[in-house]
Specification:
By secondary structure, the protein is an all-alpha fold. It contains 5 helices and no strands. The radius of gyration is 25 Å and the shape is elongated.
Length: 106
């Protein structure tokens, strides 16, 4: 590859791309705050979970399953029902909380 100057039309295209990128505020902010990190980014899964946006139907299904498991666990005292309820209830609460936050604009 030659180390000379770009042809005029390619330089014009490159300049236009650079102008467009400079106007992108979000990209500019990310590049300014870019830090080199050592090791894997362990916060990435937490960010993905925190940005969860559940739908109303999903929350309704989770609530129905949670209530059914809770009633089953209370009536039968079956260990599997209690464990299943213990596994389903925290994600249900989180989904309800995220849905309410989205609906309230928060």
């Amino acid at each position: 590859m030659a180390l000379g100057r770009l042809p005029e039309h390619e330089q014009h295209v490159l300049d236009e791309i650079e102008r467009t990128l400079r106007r992108d505020r979000r990209l500019d902010r990310r590049l300014r705050t870019l830090r080199l990190r050592r090791g894997p980014d362990l916060t990435r899964p937490l960010v993905r979970i925190a940005s969860c946006r559940p739908h109303g139907r999903t929350v309704a299904v989770l609530l129905a399953v949670s209530v059914a498991l809770m009633v089953t666990g209370i009536v039968t005292s079956a260990p599997w029902a209690i464990r299943a309820f213990a596994a389903v209830w925290p994600p249900t609460l989180f989904a309800v909380f995220r849905l309410l936050c989205r609906w309230s604009g928060g």
